[in-house]
Automatic annotation (TrEMBL):
One of its GO terms (cellular component) is mitochondrial inner membrane. It comes from Clonorchis sinensis. GO terms for biological process: positive regulation of mitochondrial translation. One of its GO terms (molecular function) is rRNA binding. It comes from the Eukaryota. This is Williams-Beuren syndrome chromosomal region 16 protein homolog. RCC repeats lie at residues 127-195, 227-265, 319-386. InterPro entries: Mitochondrial_GEF_domain, RCC1/BLIP-II, Reg_chr_condens.
Length: 482
């Protein structure tokens, strides 16, 4: 697998011959003669980031896929043409996971619509923030990157490789605060910092929140300014005042144009677009200040949030599941025919379906305590403590080519996740969502993907051959990490 990806790394790391001594050339030859099996190499230290999917926006952070000789060429708009300067042709997408070598020790990543953010730890254990991809609205700060134009002559700024994003912190804050949370929406990003423990082990101080990018609906948690211009030249990195009762953050979650905060005491706060009820604040208006979500969540300790589009799932400490927001496809079935659900509604998890294809051994399966939830654009998923995965809603939900809708949580046949057998040490433990796809992970780090990403099947990282045959993956398929 390492050999298959060698061309990627050859393009990323080039040493000009005029500047390479014989000693350097000898070391390079020795290095290139070694084949690493990264899956079992115990000498490989630190975290690694692997990327796959749409390369045209720069979100993968591999500059050579879209930029020949320093000139930006977006295959999003010119995919059928050759680069004017020669025979070089840009990559539409990366069909399989490839290691992003530009990052040192990444510890967290967040994907927006055409852009990506990372938190990395450097050699001094200090964390830094990086971003790459489209910076149309200043969601990556004041990184101009390379400039191009859309077919209708609108300016387009792309950061083709991860660039440092500097936050406006004082020297004292830099020493006592650590990057802990990142989340990205359609065109905005949110960064959370937490105070570090002092020598006596106690944590003093409160978290700090920064937001960047489009704030047309208040999703950045600051006052909406009518007619505000967005872009890297006018990018604003705003420090947001958190409600005084928020002493720490557990999670930050971004939907398309709304933002959710989860405090360490289990309270959800929301801001942004509310036309589908996605803020959960009991109305359909936009909100530009973070407010606590009440209703059915009052006095319930929430531990996990998920929202990629306009539907929100919230999981409680005891395994209860709540939902609000868009209900056009029956994702929030207790709400009946209501298309917008502006307040949290509890989902009765005893109402589940086990299809015949699952086999006789699983006919009596019921949903146990929920470990992980994922809300895509029009479909939802959960994994319980036994390792069973259930899906519901509309789309390419993973139940085969003949099924594109499930009105209740429906079990995906466990045989499709072998060797992740339920109730075993290798069982599934989590699931995450894109707008039109899911990726599940088991306890050993194995991945399965399915769905119908609009940018192409390569966004699932399942390989070239599979991507050529279809634009949809209708059942879970293994993702091979080199």
């Amino acid at each position: 697998m390492w050999k298959k990806l060698s061309w990627v790394f050859h393009e990323i790391i080039r040493i000009p011959a005029a500047h390479a001594s014989k000693k350097v050339a000898k070391k390079q030859a020795l290095r290139d003669s070694i084949v690493h099996d990264l899956a079992v190499d115990t000498h490989w230290k630190g975290n690694r980031a692997y990327v796959f999917g749409l390369a045209a926006t720069g979100a993968l952070g591999i500059e050579n896929l879209i930029v020949p000789q320093g000139e930006l060429f977006l295959s999003v708009f010119c995919s059928s043409q050759k680069f004017a300067g020669g025979s070089w042709s840009p990559k539409w997408g990366l069909h399989y996971p490839a290691r992003l070598s530009d990052l040192e020790d990444p510890v967290m990543a967040a994907c927006g619509y055409g852009f990506t953010m990372y938190i990395c730890g450097d050699s001094r254990r200090r964390r830094t923030l990086y971003g790459c991809g489209i910076n149309s609205d200043g969601q990556l700060g004041q990184n101009f990157g390379l400039k191009s134009e859309t077919p209708d002559s609108k300016p387009l700024h792309v950061v083709p490789a991860p660039q440092l994003i500097v936050l406006p912190l004082s020297k004292s804050e830099s020493e006592h605060l650590s990057l802990a949370h990142i989340a990205c929406g359609r065109a905005h990003s949110v960064v959370g910092l937490e105070p570090q423990a002092e020598q006596d082990g106690r944590i003093r101080g409160r978290p700090i929140l920064f937001t960047m990018g489009n704030n047309a609906f208040g999703q950045c948690g600051r006052q909406i300014v009518q007619g505000e211009l967005y872009g890297p030249g006018t990018a604003v990195t705003s420090r947001i005042s958190l409600p005084p009762e928020v002493l720490g953050l557990k999670q930050i979650c971004c939907g398309q144009d709304h933002t959710l905060l989860l405090s360490i005491d289990g309270v959800v706060y929301a801001a942004g677009l509310g036309t589908d009820g996605q803020t959960g604040l009991g109305h359909l208006n936009c909100t530009d200040q973070f407010q606590a979500v009440g209703g059915a969540l009052r006095k319930v300790h929430i531990t996990q949030l998920s929202s990629v589009g306009d539907t929100v799932l919230a999981l409680s400490e005891c395994g209860r599941l709540f939902a609000w927001g868009n209900n056009e496809y029956g994702q929030i079935w207790p709400a009946g025919d209501a298309l917008q659900v502006p307040e949290p509604v509890e989902l009765p998890l005893d109402e589940c379906v086990v299809p015949e294809e699952a086999g006789a051994n699983f006919r009596g399966v019921r949903i146990g305590k929920v470990l992980s939830v994922a809300a895509a654009g029009s479909m939802c998923s959960l994994v319980d403590d036994a390792g069973f995965l259930f899906v519901w809603g509309f789309g390419c939900i993973g139940l085969g080519p003949q099924t594109n809708f499930a009105h209740r949580p429906t079990l995906i046949p466990p045989g499709l996740f072998v060797p992740a057998i339920p109730k075993s040490p290798q069982a599934l433990v989590s699931v995450t969502a894109g707008l039109h796809h899911f990726i599940a992970r088991n306890a050993n780090g194995l991945l399965w993907a399915w769905g119908a990403p609009r940018s192409g099947l390569y966004c699932l990282g399942l390989g070239v051959e599979l991507s050529k045959k279809s634009s949809r993956q209708t059942y879970p398929f293994p993702v091979k990490i080199p």
